[in-house]
Amino acid sequence: MATSSDRAYEALRTAILNGEYEMGVRLGEVELASSLDISRTPIREALRRLAADGLVEVESNRGARVASWTHEDLDEIFVLRELLESHGAALAAPLITDDEIGELEQLCGRMEALVDRRTGAALQELNGLNREFHDRILAASGSPRLPGLVSSVMQMPLALRTFSRYSEEAIHRSGHHHRELVAAFRARDASWAAAVMRAHVMAARFEVACWNSDNAQVS
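Predicted structure:
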C-alpha cells in the first residue's frame, strides 16, 4: 500500500515532468502540503527523493526548487543516452521476439497518427508512447541493469517534453528512425539496430540543443 510519502512523490514527479512547475520554481512545503492534503513530513521526504532523481534542488535554509539545467548538462545526458541505448538496441536485436517486434510496430502506427495533430494533448501522448517504445527495447535487451541506468539519465529530457521542441521535419525523422529500428530488429541485425539508435539519439540531441539556443529556456 502506498504511503503518504509515495503519493506525494508521484504527484510532484508527475507535475514536474508535465511542466506544471517550471525550472527554478520554489516548492514550499506548506503550500505543497495544503494542495496535496498531505502533512509536511511526507512532503519533505518526497522532495528528498526528487532531489536524488535530479528533478529538485534542496538547499539548506533555502528550501526546495525545481532543478535548473545547463546546456552542458543536457549535452552530457544525450551523450550517455547515445551510448546506453545503442548498446541496448544491439543486445535486443538477437533476443527480441516476433510478438515484441509487432508491439513496437503498433506503437509506431499510434505515434504516426498523432504527429500531424501537433496539439498539446497529442504531443504529450506522443512523448509517452515514445518513452514506451524505448522502454520496450531496453526490456528486450535482457540486461537487468540497463533499463535502470537509462531511466536515471532520462529525467531531464522527460521534463523538457522533447517532442514539443521538435520541428516538423525532426518529428517525422524520429518516426522514420522508429520504423527503421523495427526493420533492424526483424533482420536480427545488432549492428544496424545500434547504428539507427545512435543516429536517433544524436538527432534528438541536436534538435533540443537548437531549441534551447533559440529560446534560452535552459540557463
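Summary: Strands lie at 26-27, 56-59, 63-66.
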